[in-house]
Design a protein that fits this description.
The protein has about 475 residues and is α+β, with helices and mostly antiparallel strands. Helix content is about 25%, strand content about 20%. The chain has 10 helices and 19 strands. It has a 4-stranded antiparallel β-sheet. Strands 12-13-14-15 form a 4-stranded antiparallel β-sheet, with no helix packed on it. The longest helix has 22 residues, at about 230-255.
C-alpha cells in the first residue's frame, strides 16, 4: 500500500505523438499470475506475468533514491565519487527491466538494475576523513564521430524527428536495403555508392521537400486533417502545386545517370578512356565510357584492374578481378559447366556474384563462388521427428549454423541450437539443446514442448563450448 499513489495514475499521449496499436492490458484483476500458473504453459505464463506486472507497475509510485556525492582531495586535484541508495522501491518492487542476455556488452544496461550497477554505493564517510589511495587510473579519450545508424537507432531518430509512424518503420528499413541504398556491416547501415548518388541528386532537385522538418510538418498537417482543422482538398492542392514545380525543375536540371553514367576519376586499363559508374539490371558496376568499342567492366567492390580484363556485355558479367572479393582470383581457372560442358562465366546479380553457364538460356546451371561448403558434421542425435535420420551440423546460405535431419528433403526437421546426447531428467527426452549466453554461460534446455527443464553446464563444459 505504501507504493500506491493517493489518486490513480493517468497517462495522456503528447501532442503530435505517433500512436501505434492499442496496448495489451489486464481487464480482470481476480486472476493474478500465481493463481493461473498451473493452467498455462511456461511461455504463456511468463507473457501473462509480464503484462500483469508492467500494468501494475504503471499504477505505482516512482522509486526514490538518496544520491550521495563525496569530494576527495588528492594533492592539487579533487576527485568526485557518486553513489546512491534506494530509499523507497516504488514500482521497482513489482517490475524491473534487466539487460538483454544476448545483447552486446557495450549495448548499455537497461532499467534500474543497470543504473545501480553503474553508480554503486558509497561506504559511510565523514568530513575530513583520510582515505588510502588504492589505485589511480588515468584514461585518455578522443572525440568520436557519430556512430552510423543501426536499425534501432534509425527508428529512434525517425521517432524523434516525427518521420513516419510505427506501422511504416519496417517498410522504411526494408526499402533502404532492397533498393541497395545502403550496405549493412556489423549491424550498422553504410551508404552505398548508389545511395550516396541518389541522395545527392534528390537534395539538389527536392531540397525543400527532402528534409526531416518538412516531413514532420506534413505528418502534423495529416493529424490536423484527421482532427478536422484543415480541409484535405486544400492540403493536397498546396502540395501538388509545389511538388509539380520541383518535379519540372528536376527534370530539366538533373542528369540522366542511368544513360550517361557517373564519372569515377579513373581511366580504363584497356583503352585509357574514363571509367564510369553504371547501373545495370544486375546492380551497380564500373564500366568503360568507350562502350561498345571497349567492353571493360568490373565489380564496384573490386580494386582497379592492372591488366587486360575479359570482355562483358552491358555489365551482366563482371571481370575475374571483380569476383576476387567473393573468393575467386584472376588466375583461377574456372571449371566448365557440369551440366552441358560449356565454359562458365562470372556474373553478378542483386543477390551477389556467382558463376553462370555461357549456354544460358538453354542451360540455366549456376555455381556459387567461394570456398566449398563443409560436409555436414554428425551429432549422434536421432532426428526427433522421423526417428530415422541423424541431426547434422550445417551452414545456411548466410553462414549461420543450424542442425537438420540427414534425410533432408524427405524430413525437414531443423534446430537453431546444438542438440547434445544428454537425456532430460524430467521428461525422459533423448537429447537436450545447448544454449550459450553471456549472463548464464552454457546451459542445456529441453526441446520437448511444455517440459521447461534447464540445467547449467559444468565449468569444464562451459570452457569447451566457448572455445568451440
Amino acid at each position: 500500500a505504501a507504493a500506491v499513489p493517493e489518486k490513480p495514475n493517468r497517462y495522456q499521449s503528447k501532442k503530435g505523438a505517433q500512436d501505434a496499436h492499442e496496448a495489451i492490458r489486464p481487464t480482470l484483476f481476480d486472476l493474478p499470475p500465481d493463481s493461473v500458473r498451473d493452467f498455462l504453459k511456461p511461455d504463456e505464463w511468463k507473457l501473462y506475468k509480464l503484462i500483469w506486472d508492467r500494468f501494475i507497475a504503471s499504477q505505482m509510485l516512482p522509486a526514490v533514491f538518496d544520491v550521495t556525492q563525496a569530494d576527495i582531495e588528492n594533492g592539487p586535484y579533487v576527485l568526485r565519487a557518486t553513489g546512491r541508495v534506494m530509499k523507497s522501491p516504488g514500482f521497482l518492487a513489482v517490475y524491473r527491466e534487466t539487460p538483454d542476455e544476448d545483447a552486446p556488452a557495450d549495448a548499455g544496461a537497461g532499467g534500474a538494475d543497470g543504473e545501480e550497477a553503474a553508480e554503486g554505493m558509497l561506504p559511510p564517510l565523514t568530513e575530513g576523513q583520510a582515505l588510502n589511495l588504492v589505485k589511480l587510473l588515468s584514461e585518455q579519450k578522443f572525440t568520436q564521430p557519430p556512430a552510423q545508424y543501426s536499425e534501432a537507432t534509425l527508428v529512434k531518430a525517425l521517432e524523434e524527428n516525427g518521420i513516419g509512424r510505427p506501422s511504416t518503420y519496417a517498410t522504411i528499413l526494408s526499402t533502404l536495403t532492397d533498393r541497395d541504398y545502403v550496405d549493412k556491416a556489423e549491424g550498422r547501415f553504410r551508404p552505398s555508392p548508389l545511395g550516396s548518388l541518389v541522395n545527392g541528386m534528390l537534395q539538389k532537385g527536392f531540397h525543400d521537400i527532402l528534409n526531416e522538418g518538412y516531413t514532420a510538418a506534413l505528418e502534423e498537417q495529416l493529424d490536423r486533417i484527421e482532427d478536422g482543422e484543415v480541409a484535405w482538398k486544400q492540403a493536397v492542392a498546396d502540395f501538388d502545386e509545389k511538388f509539380s514545380q520541383d518535379l519540372e525543375t528536376a527534370g530539366e536540371q538533373m542528369p540522366n545517370v542511368k544513360k550517361e553514367g557517373v564519372p569515377t576519376g579513373e581511366t580504363c586499363p584497356n583503352c585509357g578512356s574514363p571509367l564510369l559508374m553504371r547501373f545495370g539490371r544486375y546492380g551497380t558496376f564500373i564500366g568503360c565510357s568507350n562502350y561498345p568499342d571497349c567492353k571493360y567492366t568490373r565489380d564496384m567492390a573490386a580494386p582497379a584492374a592492372k591488366s587486360d580484363a575479359p570482355a562483358a556485355a552491358n555489365g551482366e558479367a563482371v571481370t575475374a578481378e571483380g569476383a576476387a572479393a567473393a573468393g575467386a582470383t584472376a588466375e583461377e581457372e574456372i571449371p566448365p559447366c557440369e551440366v552441358c560442358g560449356k565454359p562458365m562465366q562470372i556474373r553478378r546479380s542483386r543477390y551477389g556474384t556467382f558463376y553462370g553457364c555461357t549456354g544460358y538460356p538453354d542451360c540455366k546451371n549456376l555455381r556459387k563462388i567461394g570456398p566449398k561448403p563443409q560436409a555436414p558434421k554428425p551429432t549422434g542425435v536421432t532426428c526427433p521427428e522421423c526417428g530415422k535420420g541423424e541431426m547434422q551440423e550445417k551452414s545456411s546460405r548466410r553462414g549461420k549454423t543450424f542442425w537438420s535431419c540427414s534425410r533432408y528433403p524427405d524430413c525437414k526437421a531443423a534446430l537453431w541450437k546444438k542438440p547434445v546426447l544428454r537425456p532430460c531428467p524430467d521428461c525422459g527426452a533423448s537429447f537436450l539443446l545447448e544454449k550459450v549466453t553471456k549472463r548464464h554461460g552454457t546451459q542445456y534446455i529441453c526441446n520437448t514442448e511444455g517440459c521447461g527443464h534447464i540445467e547449467d553446464a559444468a565449468p569444464d563444459e562451459t570452457a569447451e563450448a566457448v572455445s568451440a
